[in-house]
Design brief:
105 residues; mainly alpha; TIM Barrel; 3-stranded parallel β-sheet; 4 helices; 3 strands; globular
């Protein structure tokens, strides 16, 4: 995992936001889009820099790493939104009906 400098992160974030805005306006000016930054392959330092740049929503697919990072970042002045990311397969499995629902009671 590499630490990027603040200007690299600012440039990357600006480009992503610009692309999202272009796509959003093409569809409808009334749509609301939320950018969730996937933090799986980055350092806590990069997350802090993105936070300083205004990004507040971060996603993670490993529960333990999400808990550790949120504990480290809990003293930030503005609340961060953390999101649990799952794969399409995990999502399909979570909606699969239980074959024996009475066994759960």
């Amino acid at each position: 995992m590499n630490n990027l400098n603040k200007e690299q992160l600012r440039s990357n974030l600006d480009n992503i936001i610009w692309n999202i805005e272009e796509a959003r306006i093409t569809v409808s000016e009334h749509h609301i889009v939320k950018l969730v930054t996937v933090a799986k392959y980055t350092t806590i330092e990069n997350i802090l820099t993105l936070y300083e740049l205004g990004q507040r929503a971060f996603g993670e697919n490993q529960i333990q790493q999400l808990k550790e990072r949120m504990a480290t970042l809990e003293d930030l002045p503005h609340r961060m939104a953390s999101h649990r990311l799952i794969t399409k397969k995990q999502n399909q499995q979570s909606h699969r009906p239980t074959p024996y629902p009475h066994a759960l009671s």
